[in-house]
Design a protein that fits this description.
alpha+beta; Aminopeptidase; 8-stranded mixed β-sheet; 4 helices; 28% helix; binds coenzyme A
Length: 177
């Protein structure tokens, strides 16, 4: 589906296909180098395009999780995933989400569109709470989440340790639908 961005351009939000595997691997690796807010050190993501193809096809066949890519100007520039935290009946009201957009494309409105996509998926699956973890000084992401009504429910102190031996806390946030 096509959406208008703040700069007047359009973005296509769609599910990935196996042929996107190389592009997806490339943006994950690139994003790890661009920001400290993600889980991995640069170079730590070492999935091959062939492995990613399998991963994509597994997700496409799993009704408890979904994945959306953002295509801008013919190129995949971001993606998000949403899925049940666990498959057991007692947990099926809870989902978590993750987002990554290449730095060059931040601030255009893509994150907001992807979040709405995840929320719509959750409502469709009768999920009643969405949870996520975000590094405490990731102001941009926190402001996006708060604008959707996410509330901070706790903090994991020193959740990540960087290569220079500094730490970052992680805020746990939740949106009740
Ligand atoms: C967090 C991220 C997904 C946001 O995506 P985005 O496309 O840049 O966000 P949007 O353009 O849709 O902006 C959404 C909101 O974020 C906030 N925001 C965007 N840019 C901001 C900035 N420079 N400073 C503060 N808040 C900002 C605003 O609340 C904005 O709302 P508005 O549209 O009403 O102004 C993106 O910055 C990203 O991929 N960052 C690196 C990876 C990451 O941090 N992922 C999240 C891990 S929890």
């Amino acid at each position: 589906m096509e959406y208008k961005l703040k700069n007047g351009q359009t973005v296509i939000i769609r599910k990935p296909v196996v042929d996107d595997a190389e592009a997806v691997v490339n943006i994950i690796s690139a994003a790890d180098k661009e920001t400290n807010f993600l889980a991995r050190n640069p170079g730590e993501f070492c999935i091959t395009a062939d492995e990613e193809k399998v991963f994509i096809s597994n997700i496409l066949n799993d009704s408890d999780t979904d994945w959306f890519v953002a295509e801008y100007d013919g190129k995949i520039v971001g993606h998000c995933s949403v899925g049940l935290v666990r498959k057991y009946e007692r947990y099926r009201h809870r989902a978590d989400v993750t987002f990554v957009i290449l730095k060059k494309y931040w601030g255009l409105g893509i994150g907001r569109i992807l979040m709405q996509q995840c929320i719509d998926w959750c409502r469709d699956k009768n999920v009643t709470q969405i949870e996520l973890g975000v590094i405490s000084d990731n102001k941009c992401a926190i402001s996006l989440y708060e604008s959707f009504g996410f509330k901070t429910i706790g903090t994991v102190p020193k959740a990540m340790k960087y290569q220079d031996n500094t730490f970052a806390d992680e805020k746990l946030m939740m949106l009740e639908l």
